């Protein structure tokens, strides 16, 4: 018996020694190749280290010449379903949260310091996964055959056909224990300076905020259809500088939103926003922009006569002169919320495999803008215990990012089956970054002292993991989808949230108490959502389909 134990011990020791010896041997071979390439610059050896040769003296960024994820085929043709923004294959495959069984793991919270308060506190995203990925490569869908035709020239087409190019695969690899964190550059501006290109070849979501005294699109206090929670001017916000900014892409100029032209292209049609309160924020902005161009304001009205839109429901604004409607359908998860009674009370679940029952209200629309994200950060969804349901099975526990991906797959299957691509343009608006400092939305987070955007990109964190999941799903849809990638441009705007200006205070004590419960998620109107609609207008023109042909 004793000899058997000794034999097993020897076998275990040998198993442990073998990987170590292999590792030592591999290290010696790599070091030898490194010295060879630095000494001789040989054609055979150098390519193995071509990625490392691009490291600059002051940068920790490494050009990585190959994909780290074998599940992504980097030699295949680029994805063909995303209009306007098509990611390089290796970039899209870079899910830092992918686990061995294929599920998505959530990321740790990332702080986003304020530009002038970085030493005293952090501006954080309540989602816990805020930040940025690579600058997307541009492409346009051919509506006839659903294939990608690159507008970035022969060189770009060649690079996309060969897989991800080395210069676009700049990544910082940082090992902390067994955890690997991948970061990608934000901004850049290969097309910057005076070398402007046409909007068809330009990434309109890669840019910066610049002052523009011609803004906003409608005067402060002029639109009666702004929810009180978004009407910062009504509630006495003393500064107005936050409305005097415009988004300037690095490589091109985008047109201002021509409200008359927008309505003319929408004549006889139906445009619908579907999603959570951030899409309602955008919907109210568009209604106000379009209404401001109408002479007879009474010919613009919500068809049920309502003027408050915070409650869950379906709302529709009619523009009589153009026989069109601009609607909002409240569906924060896109998939179905469910509940049933038990002996212990009501039990709520989220059906990841079924669309919300509101789909009949927008399946025949001409333009649909979807979004979903912020409700996935709430306690019940984040915890994921006895909440997510598929069929008759309720998951004992499911990570929120995996649940989000499954919900998006349900949405993708639904649009592929129910949307008429010859009639309807589909868009998905990305995650709108939040700026809570010193806590979260329910724990004293603040942003009311912010009066300027962030200017230093070093204070911008990681690209939201939920949006990486979204981009992965968008590659699989048969229906082309325009991705409104607003995450980065909103991350700069820590100055433009309602904060404490969501209501009117009767006493100083009420005003002080409000500082403990601020809104650093939504946006003042006029404000940042006006820019989202400007980019919506530019994206529809860029797609050039149906009535949006130039």
UniProtKB/TrEMBL annotation:
Keywords, sorted A to Z: Membrane, Signal-anchor, Transmembrane, Transmembrane helix
GO cellular component: Golgi apparatus; membrane
Domain Trichome birefringence-like C-terminal stretches: 254-538
Name used for this protein in its record: Trichome birefringence-like N-terminal domain-containing protein
Annotated transmembrane regions: 20-40
Topology versus the membrane: Single-pass membrane protein
Family the entry assigns: Belongs to the PC-esterase family. TBL subfamily.
Natural source organism: Salix udensis
InterPro entries: TBL (IPR029962), TBL_C (IPR026057), TBL_N (IPR025846)
Region (Disordered): 98-129
Molecular function as annotated in GO: O-acetyltransferase activity
PANTHER family in the record: PROTEIN TRICHOME BIREFRINGENCE-LIKE 2 (PTHR32285:SF208), PROTEIN TRICHOME BIREFRINGENCE-LIKE 9-RELATED (PTHR32285)
């Amino acid at each position: 018996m004793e000899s058997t134990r000794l034999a097993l011990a020897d076998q275990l020791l040998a198993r442990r020694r073998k990987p170590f010896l292999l590792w030592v041997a591999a290290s010696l071979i790599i070091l030898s190749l490194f010295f060879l390439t630095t000494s001789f610059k040989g054609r055979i050896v150098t390519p193995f280290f071509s990625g490392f040769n691009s490291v600059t003296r002051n940068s920790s960024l490494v050009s990585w010449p190959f994909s780290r994820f074998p599940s992504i085929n980097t030699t295949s043709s680029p994805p063909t379903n995303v209009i306007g923004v098509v990611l390089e294959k290796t970039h899209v495959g870079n899910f830092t949260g992918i686990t061995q069984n294929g599920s998505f793991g959530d990321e740790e919270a990332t702080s986003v310091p304020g530009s002038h308060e970085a030493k005293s506190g952090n501006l954080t995203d309540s989602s816990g996964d805020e930040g940025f990925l690579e600058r997307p490569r541009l492409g346009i869908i051919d509506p006839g055959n659903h294939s990608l035709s690159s507008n970035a020239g022969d060189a770009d087409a060649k690079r996309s056909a060969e897989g991800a190019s080395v210069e676009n695969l700049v990544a910082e690899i940082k090992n902390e224990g067994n955890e690997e964190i991948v970061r990608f550059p934000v901004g850049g501006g290969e097309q910057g300076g005076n070398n402007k290109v046409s909007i068809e070849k330009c990434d309109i979501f890669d840019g910066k905020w610049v002052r523009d005294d011609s803004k906003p699109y409608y005067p402060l206090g002029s639109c009666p259809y702004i929810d009180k929670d978004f009407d910062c001017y009504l509630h006495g916000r003393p500064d107005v500088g936050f409305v005097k900014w415009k988004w300037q892409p690095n490589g091109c100029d985008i047109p201002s939103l021509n409200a008359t032209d927008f309505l003319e292209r929408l004549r006889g049609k139906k445009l619908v926003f579907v999603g959570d309160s951030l899409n309602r924020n955008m919907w109210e902005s568009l209604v106000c922009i379009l209404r401001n161009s109408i002479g007879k304001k009474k010919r613009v009205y919500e068809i049920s006569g309502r003027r408050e839109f915070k409650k869950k429901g379906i709302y529709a604004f009619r523009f009589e002169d153009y026989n069109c409607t601009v609607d909002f359908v409240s569906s924060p998860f896109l998939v179905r919320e469910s509940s049933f009674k038990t002996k212990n009370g009501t039990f709520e679940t989220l059906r990841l495999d079924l669309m919300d029952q509101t789909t009949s209200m927008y399946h025949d629309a001409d333009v649909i803008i979807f979004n979903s994200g912020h409700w996935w950060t709430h306690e019940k969804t984040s915890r994921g215990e006895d909440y997510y349901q598929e069929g008759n099975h309720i998951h004992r526990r499911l990570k929120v990012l995996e649940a989000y991906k499954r919900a998006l797959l349900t949405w993708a299957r639904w649009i592929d089956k129910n949307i008429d691509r010859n009639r309807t343009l589909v868009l998905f608006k990305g995650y709108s970054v939040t700026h809570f400092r010193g806590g979260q939305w329910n724990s004293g987070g603040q942003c009311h002292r912010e009066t300027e955007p962030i200017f230093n990109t070093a204070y911008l964190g990681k690209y939201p993991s939920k949006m990486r999941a979204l981009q992965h799903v968008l590659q699989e849809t048969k229906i082309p989808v325009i991705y409104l990638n607003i995450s980065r441009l909103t991350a700069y705007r820590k100055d433009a949230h309602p904060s404490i200006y969501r209501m009117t205070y009767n006493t100083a004590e009420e005003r002080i108490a409000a500082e403990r419960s601020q809104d650093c998620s939504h946006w003042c109107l006029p404000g940042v959502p006006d820019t989202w609609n400007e980019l919506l207008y530019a994206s529809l023109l860029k797609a050039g389909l149906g009535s949006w042909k130039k």
